[in-house]
Amino acid sequence: MFNSSHALDGIRVLDLSRVLAGPWCTQNLGDLGADVIKVERPGQGDDTRGWGPPFLPNDQGQDTDQAAYYLGTNRNKRAIACDIATPGGQTLIKQLVAHCHIFVENFKVGDMARYGLDFDSLRHINPKLVYCSITGFGQNGPYKDRAGYDYAIQGMGGLMSVTGERDDLPGGGPQKVGVAVADLFTGMYATVGILAALRHAEATGQGQYVDMALLDTQVAMLANLGANYLVSGQQTGKVPGRAGNAHMNIVPYQVFETAPDGDGQAQHMIVAVGNDGQFAKFCDVLSVASEQAIGWASDPRYATNANRVRNRDTLVPAMAQLMTTRSKGYWLSALEAAKVPCGPINSLAEVFEDPQVQARGMVEHWAHPLNGDVSLVASPLKLSATPVAQRHPPPTLGQHTDAVLRELLALSEADITALKAQGIVA
User: Is 200 part of any domain?
Assistant: First the structure.
């Protein structure tokens, strides 16, 4: 009978991934209670350890070698330093695999086979092993040998063709998203795939290979825009383009400028009308600026969302003009009272000061070995019976090498010292 305080207690992950997509996946698994063992190259480690500033300051306020980027993607893991390019390092990894349920890597296609650490090799050691490879383009196809980077994938996968201001407006042109969404989504999809494969392994005794590609994920992320094109664009030749802060299929669902603040600075906010009833309420609120707005809800050109989309070029400018007559604070208060979805555009400082963000516990404090207290963004997962664990702060390079080798492989101090002398571990 299952009796655990965390959903993945008893599950062990050997994590040979670096940078973002893989570590994001394994951080999810660690948050859920899995014992994640992060394997890094001695002396160098994950590239993101050096992706700063900012770096974590030590007790004296001086920069350490722990970049904030690394800290944000590697909580709830233990770290060992092992050189998998050496025969001795490969032997250690194979020995550890026998004690693990999940193996995650994001090396180039073929690299793991060259080291004897590919799925076909490792499943003979552990038939129940769930093996996940994360690459830019997957294990087959004409691009499989290419390196994959989030920025390029956002372009290749169509996201930048639909992100950014309209080409006919000032500032128009392709724009990437502010965070590496292809990496992050791939990490999330990888988490889902691994958990599905894990359930299969527990039911059948057979592991399997999970082949995750950034480009596949980016294409899937096109969501309604991808569906729009496949349903109608292929026949009509109409390809979705950039719409700025507007929505392709919903009107009004965009950013509006409001009256300037006391310093004369332009202010902006979001209105996200999702149905015709909300549109009628929005028109009622706008009527404070012009009675003309009341009639929009019954006007055949605008009464339904489909017609609002067709006639956005006449409706949106009229609404935008009315929004500039009152302050952002006024509109937010009035629209929230009318149950019309809306919101501010917060800076990161405002995000972490927001009372809702604070009430949801989205910032956690961790005791770090190089700094008594470090604040990190928390997991958004809220599970009532098996809550997210807070067990290991992001580890320093090789912090747990000795402990893991003693615990899992029963190596003696002399054995570990010999491995370090050979440069196999650190």
Answer: yes
